[in-house]
Amino acid sequence: MSASGPRWCPVYVGIGSNLDDPERQVAQAIADLRALPDCLLTVVSSLYRSAPMGPADQPDYINAVAALLTTLAPHDFLGELQKIEVRHGRQRDGERWGPRTLDLDMLVFGSHRIADDRLNVPHAGIAARNFVLLPLCELAPQLNVPGLGTVTALLHALSDSAAQIERIGQANP
Known about the structure:
The chain is of the alpha+beta class and 173 residues long.
């Protein structure tokens, strides 16, 4: 910590669930994000229902995006997200895009660009996922996603896929 105090960094987190009462899972995840050390939850998007990526024989997802400020380093913040997922029964069995109780994705962490064996920021799939871009656009339409452009521009590039997602209401943690 510097003499002027901690340095706060904005971070956006994608939240998704399609098992074990997904709306409740998302609401509890938002409450868990609010309780993170060295973090301040600032705003949460509406909830959205979307068809699953990958195998079609799984339930629809409930998605949202949360905006926070944190003094944690990116990898430390990732560790906190993974602890929340584990508390929600998340099991990483190697199946990509399979059903899950909770998925927390670090979408954007300030202006950082990180690509290592544990973390990719901005999130590698952010530009191709309307279930991320629509709720993110609610919170920060002019947010510059490092190396990719604004959220609004990214969303306009996906306009033909908007029918596959439905806004279902506000998150109520």
